C-alpha cells in the first residue's frame, strides 16, 4: 500500500484490500487504524474527520441540528444525521483508496432499509470489512465500552447500546474481531493475519 491517500473518482473493478474498521463508540477503531497504518505504510482515512465537506453536499445545517436536539433530544438529532452519514460513506469510498478506513460509529448503522441497502452496496467491493467488538456477549461489550468512555452523555450511552444491538454492522462485516483479552497490538496483528489470509 502507498504512503499517501490516492483519490479516485471511480470504484475499482476488483475487490479492494483496503481495511474498513467498523464498530460502536470506543471499540478501538482509531487506535487500531493507527497501528495498521504504521505496519502497512498506509494512511488512515477517518470518516469523522473528513465527513463535514460531504455533509455539506446535502446541505447539512449545524444550527438546525442543534435546534432538533433541543426540541427532540439526542435521538431526534440522530435521525437528522443519518442521510448525511450514508452520503458521506458513499462519497468517501469513491474518493479515497490505498488507506485504512476508520468509520465513525454511526456511519455503519442504519435503521432505514434504503440506507442499509446503500451501505451494503457501497461496501460490496471491500473484502476486509472488520467489525471490532470487546466481546461476543452484548452486555459484556456494553459494560467494557462504557468503562472506556466514562465521559459519554446519557444520549451517547443509549445510542452506543443501540449500535451494539443493531445487526447493521454484522450484515456488512467480513470479519469480527473480539478485543477483550487482547492488547491493541495483538488485535492489529490478528487483523493482519485475517486480511493476509494466513
CATH hierarchy, class: Alpha Beta
Question: Which topology does CATH recognise?
Answer: Rossmann fold
Q: What's the tally of helices?
A: 9
Structural class assignment = alpha/beta
How is this structure best summarized?
This protein is an alpha/beta fold. Helices cover 55% and strands 11% of the residues. The chain has helices spanning 29-40, 47-57, 62-72, 74-95, 113-123, 138-148, 154-165, 168-172, 184-196, and strands spanning 6-7, 20-22, 44-46, 96-97, 100-102, 129-133, 175-178.
Can you put this structure into words, describing what you see?
- The protein is α/β, with parallel strands linked by helices and 198 residues long.
- It has a single domain, classed as P-loop containing nucleotide triphosphate hydrolases (Rossmann fold, 3-Layer(aba) Sandwich), CATH 3.40.50.300.
- It has 9 helices and 7 strands.
- The strands form 2 sheets. Strands 3-5-2-6-7 form a 5-stranded parallel sheet. Strands 1-4 form a two-stranded antiparallel ribbon.
- Helix 1 (29-40) packs across helix 9, helix 3 (62-72) runs antiparallel to helix 4 and helix 6 runs antiparallel to helix 7.
- It is globular, with a radius of gyration of 16 Å.
- The two termini are 18 Å apart.
SSE diagram, text form:
Blueprint: E1 6-7, E2 20-22, H1 29-40, E3 44-46, H2 47-57, H3 62-72, H4 74-95, E4 96-97, E5 100-102, H5 113-123, E6 129-133, H6 138-148, H7 154-165, H8 168-172, E7 175-178, H9 184-196
Parallel strand pairs: 2-5, 2-6, 3-5, 6-7
Antiparallel strand pairs: 1-4
Helix pairs in contact: 1-9, 2-4, 3-4, 4-5, 6-7
